Each structure stands twice: as C-alpha cells, then as structure tokens.
Amino acid sequence: MNIPTKFTHEKKIDSLAHDYLQQGFTVVKEPAVELIPFDLSGYRPDLLVSKGDKNLIIEVKTKASRISVDKFQSLAQEISKHDGWRFLLVTLDDVDSSMTPTTEDDLPTWSQLQSKLLQAQALIASGAIEPATLYLWSIFEAALRKRAIIQSIPVERLPASMLIKHMYSQGEVSVNDVDLFLDFMNRRNRLAHGANETIDPHQLSQVFQTVNRILVEWDSFNPL
Fold this sequence. Notes:
- By secondary structure, the chain is an alpha+beta fold.
- Helix content is about 55%, strand content about 10%.
- It contains 7 helices and 4 strands; from the N terminus they run αβββαβααααα.
- It has helices spanning about 5-20, 70-80, 110-125, 130-150, 160-170, 175-190, 200-220; strands at about 25-30, 45-50, 55-60, 85-90.
- The protein has a 4-stranded mixed β-sheet.
C-alpha cells in the first residue's frame, strides 16, 4: 500500500471509528484475535465495534473494484454463524450510509416489499410512468441490499451499479436480468437527476414482472 493510499485508508478507519463512537459503540482498532470469541484463522479486522449484543467486524478497503467478494463472503458466512455478530466490508466507493439503508433493521421485510410492488403496479396502471420508474427501482435496490445481507455477500454498501454486478457474479441475478436492470437503472438515474428521459412502458412492465419474480424467489428462500 503506497503512502497516499495508506493515508486514505487510515483516514477512513478513523472516520468510521468516530461515527461508531458517536453512536455509543465501543470501538477497537486492529483488535487482537483474543477479542473475537471464535476462530477466524488469525484474521484481524480494521475495527471491532460493539454495543449490547451487536458486534461488527469491519474491514476497510480503498477500492471496491479490487476486492475479492468470494474471500470476504467466506469470512462473512463464518462470522454470521454466531448470534449478534456480523461482518461489514467498507470501501471508499460506498454509498452514503446516512442516506441509504445498509442494515437489516433499515430495510423493509419481504412482505413490505411485496406491498410496495402493488403500489408500483397501481402507478403503472394509472399511466404514472415516471413515478412508477423511480418507485420500482427503489423496491428492487432495497431487495438487492437485503438479499446481499441475508446471503452474507458483503456488498450491500456499494453503489447500485457495482452491487448488481457483484450479485450477478455470485449467481443471485441472471445474465438476462442484469442487462435489463443496468439499462433500466441508467434511465432511472437520468430521470432522477432531471433529464428529459423517455421511459418505454414495455420495458417498465418487463422490469416490474422481473422484480416480482425475484421477490417471490428470494422470499421463499428466507422470509425475513
């Protein structure tokens, strides 16, 4: 790690430590292996933060594009076997966690997502194409982040475009669906940022049907 990268890495760790301290957590930087009450084969995270029965083992990386999801997924799965413990992968490319839900408690249940999808369907039926586009995307993005957490795929903090690609690489999204969602996301983003974007009603209907199918599939696996 070169000096500028090391400085950025340490600055991010310090920023996270400060944020968690402000929330009432106990924070330990580079904790000794003895502080983790189960064996992680000598692995030492950047931070260990604890409050009550909630314990987070945090790894900080400067570039999301350079992370090995498989490596960290194995670690996340092992940690998730222990009640009250969770692995969190943080990168400088992450979304703003103050604005985007990135924990189980922040995200809707599967049944709530299904209810939201019915509202999106009503918008589509009424011809409210632009509001339906924005709302439908928010439902799918919430489902993606929720599924990542449940499956211990530590990418739930990444921007949506990277999140989709990682979920595709892990077999959670099919090759046909990923192309559809990436194109729809680009159109939604232009619309959200004020562009005069024309939304194809046929594509909107296709995305709705695909999101509905995915929600049913993921709900049947783990109805939380």
